[in-house]
């Protein structure tokens, strides 16, 4: 029996050995997309924002058009610093995993602007609900790298008390929520946080991030529906880095419509932005946050970017995509683009950049040494094993006390 | 006979079934071009085409819901859930739909879906890559539930699961994908090629769903276990120096009560072991079964050794895992009692 299937199966434009091809990525010229007032009615703006691409930096590294946030030199330098810190941190921690010092790691190479620019555009009281590829949020909020390293080491200063895999950070004081291993769960939670803020009459808003692959989960739709129904003050970000482990964005529905275009279907403005353009990400996040704060409701932002390295240290992308694909990525490297703009603006120089890289490198060396002092996988102080039974509930319940006693008896 | 790892045995089972039955399809995250994150479906898309081995969006509710629809429309889908920890977005489709479709339609609609999913810890996966949620599903009526402990059983049981007209949840203990694991993480890994159950016929064969296996005979006590724990219990029996009769449960639903009864009637003592948490775990069902069936043969209270009633902690993995020492202590306790 022969069958002639009629089902459409998405195909990435290039597989290993093929020439990379990003002709499917629609790119608007920098400055081309109008910037509507934050109170503009959705139906007047939905098409341009969701289907075109907000970009500020042009090919000559100049900032052009209505979305230029006109950041001063200081803000630009802060942004560049944290993007570079994120990148160097990733590089080192990846190396530490390879050396067997930590069990697992996930880099955000090529996506640093998405997190750092957004954190800069939001207020410190705004609550962030990250995915595992948003380490830049922590740095941009001033987190000491030692804290993150201690989590990676599951040591005595690990904020998760050794209970989570590496990179599943959180930061109560910095208003950054816990990362779950289960994708997209944070999306409706962010909406709920924002609803609570509105119920309490407070100004703080929430923001959440997922990968485009994760937008296939039902929780995406739960979040969008609740955000739309209650006009929740929330910024919902989809980081479209083209790949979800081995499946390209077509498997999440990206072949039909940009991810941003899902917003209008729910009555939520969707904005498609060049995720490798620090200024554009900053400006769009600012715009969305302003809408949320003024009571104009949620915004969906699609950041078009590229996952430049492996999904995680357990992954080998050369099995499913061309090795050199990142080099062909038309939106370039977010760090290099911001740097080029700043040099052009006389806000930065190569010499300053080298000095910064050296400074951050030294800081990370010191941080690693300090973090290891709180314990590594093989040496130094270790967490108290009895803590295994704590925090399941607020109090250790009787059945867990019994199990803990049993555990202690076995230890002796 | 060939030598296969559990991954190769599973791959072989799916290969054979895709070949024998044009209605068999595979659906899951990264299962197609990539061959799955654990490589269980490696090469199958190339061989059978992308309409038979289908990469899915990241939506477990969709993967299971769509499989139900495919099953109703005559296909025989195998859904892969990348980690058992990620099965919950598909929970409603499994519990309310897949499990109950036949009953609610007076037997007229059914969906012969097999859900394969890697479970269990010991791989430094923390709480979202280590769970053993079989007990969550054994409490649902309408699902057959399997967990093999070796490549030979894995292949024969997976083939039966795919051929079965009822929905089957097929849990794969990922720690023993590449070799048996006796619970000692410091020992060098042993490959399946050195284990008798790593000998697997290349061709088609099936094992009946619903039969336990006595993997080691003994007179002193009965150990009821499954999955990775079978290997841990064998090592623990040596450590405790007891002649344990080790029963690999293999299929939780249907449960082989006869084999359990015969063993416990013979030994009079019983230890139940699983990696999943204790409270309301499948061990409770086993314990109740032994009590109901063998009460007058029991010479000592039944002992359960399980994961603690906490999430699976990354740093304390080996304190959490019910290893040889804990199992051996329970064996000694049961021998000393009564
Ligand atoms: C509910 C659930 N299903 C599956 C997984 C396994 N998984 C982890 S990351 C990932 C890919 C996610 O891709 P995407 O959302 O695009 O984010 P990216 O990794 O590209 O940043 C998958 C399938 C999971 N963690 N949770």
Could you characterize what this model shows?
With 412 residues, chain A is α/β, with parallel strands linked by helices. Chain A has two domains: 42-381, Rossmann fold; 385-412, no CATH class. In chain A, strand 2 (206-211), helix 7 and strand 3 form a beta-alpha-beta unit. Helices cover 39% and strands 8% of the residues of chain A. Chain B has two domains: 2-200, 3-Layer(aba) Sandwich (Rossmann fold), CATH 3.40.50.970; 213-336, Rossmann fold (3-Layer(aba) Sandwich). In chain B, the strands form three sheets. In chain B, strands 3-2-4-5-7-6-12 form a seven-stranded mixed sheet, sandwiched between helices. With 338 residues, chain B is α/β, with parallel strands linked by helices. In chain B, strand 2, helix 2 and strand 3 (53-55) form a beta-alpha-beta unit. At the A-B interface, helix 13 of A face helix 3 and helix 12 of B. Thiamine diphosphate sits between chains A (133, 181-183, 210-214, 239, 241, 243-245, 307, 311) and B (29, 58, 60, 82, 86, 89).
